[in-house]
Amino acid sequence: MALLEEIAQRLGDKVEIFTRGYPTETGLEAYMTLVDRNPNWTYGGEYTIPDDLEEMYGRVHFAWCMDFLDEHGNSKLLLACRMYQGGFYGAVPLTAAGTEMDRRMRAAGIGHVFEEPYAENVAAFLENLDFAAFTTHRAELMRRRHELFEEDGRETTALLERIKEISGSGGS
């Protein structure tokens, strides 16, 4: 949240930060204090999956996929739902370099990856955004959304088959 606030303050009315969900780490009151002190930050309340996803992600340009909650642990391994859900509805994912999300996004040729200092680099990216390139990128996400963001069972089946091989129980 501190990074988003830094971006909101640096870019002022050039950007709108739009968030949804329940802020479990801070609680709603503390979270709203942060939101309320930034006129370009809108909190849209809690949401329901899958009912609200299209409206929520369809109204934004980017999905914030950076996670620092467990910076020296799970955060680097996380594949955030925001990448899948947002990407499916055309919100281009933004993430931190050196994470599993970075690896996955680069392999798919989607999104934007940022090095430290994150807030400064994301703000510079947004300030220099080529809207035509963004529109092309978003259109490509939408064209490939089923391929990129829906699991059809193949990955799970392959994982189970590999586990069988490793455990020596190649039978069914």
Helices and strands, with pairings:
Layout: H1 2-11, E1 17-19, H2 28-36, E2 41-43, H3 53-58, E3 62-64, H4 81-88, E4 92-96, H5 100-108, E5 112-114, H6 118-127, H7 131-143, H8 145-149, H9 154-167
Parallel strand pairs: 1-2, 3-4, 4-5
Helix pairs in contact: 1-6
Protein architecture, described:
By secondary structure, the chain is mostly helical. The protein has a single domain, classed as Glycogen Phosphorylase B (Rossmann fold), CATH 3.40.50.2000. It contains 9 helices and 5 strands; from the N terminus they run αβαβαβαβαβαααα. The protein has helices spanning 2-11, 28-36, 53-58, 81-88, 100-108, 118-127, 131-143, 145-149, 154-167, and strands spanning 17-19, 41-43, 62-64, 92-96, 112-114. The strands form 2 sheets. It has a 3-stranded parallel sheet with strand order 3-4-5, sandwiched between helices. Helix 1 (2-11) packs parallel to helix 6. The longest helix has 14 residues, at 154-167. It is globular and about 60 Å long. The chain starts with a helix and ends in a 5-residue tail after the last helix.
Q: What is the compact description of this entry?
A:
The chain contains 9 helices and 5 strands. It is mainly alpha-helical and 172 residues long.
Assign the CATH architecture. Answer: 3-Layer(aba) Sandwich
Indicate the overall shape. globular
β-strand amount: 5-15%
Give the number of DSSP strands: 5
CATH topology: Rossmann fold
Number of domain units: 1
Oligomer: single chain
Q: Give the helices and strands as they follow along the chain.
A: HEHEHEHEHEHHHH
Determine the CATH superfamily. Answer: Glycogen Phosphorylase B
C-alpha-based Rg, rounded: 18 Å
Averaged pLDDT, please? Answer: 94
Helix content: 40-55%
Poorly predicted runs of 5 or more residues = none
**Main sheet record:** 3 strands, parallel
